[in-house]
Design brief:
By secondary structure, this protein is α/β, with parallel strands linked by helices. It has four domains: 80 residues, no CATH class; 274 residues, Rossmann fold (3-Layer(aba) Sandwich), CATH 3.40.50.200; 76 residues, Immunoglobulins (Immunoglobulin-like), CATH 2.60.40.10; 71 residues, Immunoglobulins (Immunoglobulin-like), CATH 2.60.40. 15% of the residues lie in helices and 34% in strands. It is built from eight helices and 34 strands. Strand 26 and strand 27 form a beta hairpin. Helix 4 runs parallel beside helix 7, helix 5 runs parallel beside helix 6 and helix 7 packs across helix 8. It starts with 9 loop residues before the first strand and ends with a strand. The N terminus is likely disordered. Belongs to the peptidase S8 family. One of its GO terms (cellular component) is extracellular space. This is Peptidase S8/S53 domain-containing protein.
Length: 546
């Protein structure tokens, strides 16, 4: 079903049908973006005031509509007391400069110095987070996504899947969460298609896509918009509503080499606005700048997945390429701290950023994305395990600090009858005593590997005979009683004698016909499979018939 949060496409007559036109209503107001170069003739976005007048407390209108009308009708509508503002619909575009040839960018964001370490060590994998890519769609079958990408909503053609026929959205998604090129390598990617095959779209479709995410987002979540256009209060209001719902929003600063405050959504204060740098930590020549930019991230020569095929890649420049680095970093933060609000995520990334490295800033903050220091290598705390032969055992291997990863056996073996699963749970019933040395391995998400050799001891205990007394019997009657113990073994008579006519089987059964009256006291012995012995003194009374 098509989600039309902005309402149906209305005419000016339909909007004004609630009352007759009066001289007061014929007054004219200002239309936001009227006559702009990217304006779509005859189409407007009408945002109504909240009930009681004014904008709602969250700064988001209660209802908005896309309408067809003349410029004069739009000005008259803008003057109405129940209308917050009227904005001319316009074209928006993907913020990409050019695709070019590799991958330095991930190396740069996990360290403060400019000298690259030739490694990328993320702090988490983002597996609990959904990343909504509001763009040209995603080629979800690309091998970089390993089944983690899905279609969300297609605002351009609502009856069709949000497939990528341009490549821009797939490239952005690959930087957010590709297995090779991504910052958060296990994040769940959701395609929200708002731009067409040329990387172009209209404002109304972008807002529809944003509103779909507001209604359907699975949190913790981050949304990336590597697109932009001139200032738009309608788009900013829709994004503010998304942020108020708890979704972190990351946007590209733009590629016009101008102040980002002049463009939407780059000028939205509550979003994380990202400018682009090159491999020398210089602001990219095309990148927008200014106080509205929160962070810079690599945006020149960025290799990522592409929509040409399931193994296609491309190298691209643009703030479109910078923003998804930050979206991926936000996913890592949310994976580790899912309760963080968008403000907390932004503040954390700003606080962790590498300061004072970027040149050519033009009034921008000197903050380069840093995906936080790698965690310390995991340390296995468990050093020894003790079990008892013949008794069930279950125990969990432990680290000094919780970490996501998988356990395995590096060398040696566990006692017979005992196994270990990938979660580090050792369980089973050891079949015999002894001592084994086994080296266990823990591999975390980075991946960092920790190993430790454990001593696994299987001890034996003395059997416990549970039978404490035996019933009496009349002479000449058949007798049958089963001796019991805490384990199996071989039963024998160690001392004394059973009543005449009775015997003890090795399985512990005393049976027979007593032929002589009297009291017989004897000692039974149980020898278990490991040679451990238990004894018990028992008595059977045989009485004569009266």
């Amino acid at each position: 079903m098509r989600m039309r949060v902005l309402g149906t496409l209305l005419t000016a007559a339909a909007i004004t049908a609630a009352g007759s036109v009066t001289p007061a209503q014929a007054a004219e107001g200002n239309v936001v973006g009227a006559g702009a170069p990217e304006a779509i003739a005859g189409q407007y976005l009408v945002t109504m005031k909240a009930p009681g007048g004014g904008i709602s407390a969250q700064g988001v209108s209660t209802s908005s509509y896309r309408a067809r009308m003349s410029a004069k009708q739009a000005r008259r509508l803008a003057a109405r007391s129940d209308v917050a503002f009227v904005e001319q619909n316009k074209r928006v575009h993907a913020e990409t400069t050019t695709y070019r040839n590799p991958i330095w960018n991930l190396d740069r964001i996990d360290q403060h110095p400019v000298a690259l370490s030739r490694t990328y060590t993320p702090t988490d994998d983002g597996s609990s987070v959904h990343a909504y890519v509001i763009d040209t769609g995603i080629r979800i079958t690309h091998h970089e996504f390993a089944g983690r990408a899905s279609y969300g909503y297609n605002a351009v053609s609502p009856s069709r899947p949000a497939a990528d026929c341009n490549g821009h959205g797939t490239h952005v998604a690959g930087t957010i969460g590709g297995t090779s090129y991504g910052v958060a390598k296990q994040v769940k990617l959701v395609a929200i298609k708002v731009l067409d095959c040329d990387g172009e779209g209209d404002l109304a479709d972008v807002i529809n896509g944003v509103n779909w995410v507001t209604a359907h987002a699975q949190k913790p979540a981050v949304a990336n918009l590597s697109l932009g256009g001139s200032n738009s209060p309608s788009l900013n209001a829709a994004l503010q509503k998304l942020i108020n719902k708890g979704v972190t929003v990351v946007v590209a600063a733009g590629n016009e080499n101008v102040d980002a405050a002049t463009e939407s959504p780059a000028n939205l204060a509550a979003a994380i606005t990202v400018g682009a740098t090159n491999s020398k930590d210089q602001r990219a020549s095309f990148s927008n700048y200014g106080s509205r930019v929160d962070l810079f991230a690599p945006g020149v020569g960025i290799k990522s997945s592409f929509a040409g095929g399931d193994y296609s890649t491309a190298v691209a420049d643009g703030t479109s390429m910078a923003a998804p680095h930050v979206a991926g970093a936000a996913a890592l933060v949310l994976d580790a701290t899912p309760g963080y609000s968008p403000v907390q995520v932004r503040n954390y990334l700003v606080a962790q950023a590498t300061p004072g490295r970027i040149s050519g800033l033009k009034g921008s903050p000197n903050r380069l994305l840093f995906s936080t220091a790698p965690p310390a290598a995991p340390v296995i705390r468990t050093s020894a395990i003790s079990m008892t032969a013949g008794l069930a055992y279950s125990g969990q291997l432990a680290l000094t600090a919780a970490r996501r990863g998988a356990w395995s056996i590096a060398s040696g073996s566990l006692p017979a009858g005992v196994t270990m699963n990938g979660n580090g749970l050792i369980s089973g019933t050891p079949t015999g005593p002894g001592s084994d040395a086994v080296t266990v391995r823990f591999t975390d998400y980075v991946p960092t590997v920790a190993t430790r050799t454990l001593t696994v001891s299987v001890d034996v205990t003395t059997p416990v005979i549970k039978t404490a007394a035996l019933p009496s019997i009349l002479r000449g009657m058949y007798y049958n009683q089963q001796l019991t113990a805490d384990r199996a073994g071989v039963w024998t008579v160690a001392a004394g004698e059973l009543p005449n006519g009775m015997s003890l089987a090795t399985g512990g059964e005393i049976s027979g016909v007593a032929t002589t009256a009297g009291s017989s006291t004897f000692t039974v012995q149980l020898t278990d499979g490991w040679g451990q012995v238990a004894r018990a003194e028992l008595t059977i009374e045989v009485t004569a018939r009266s």
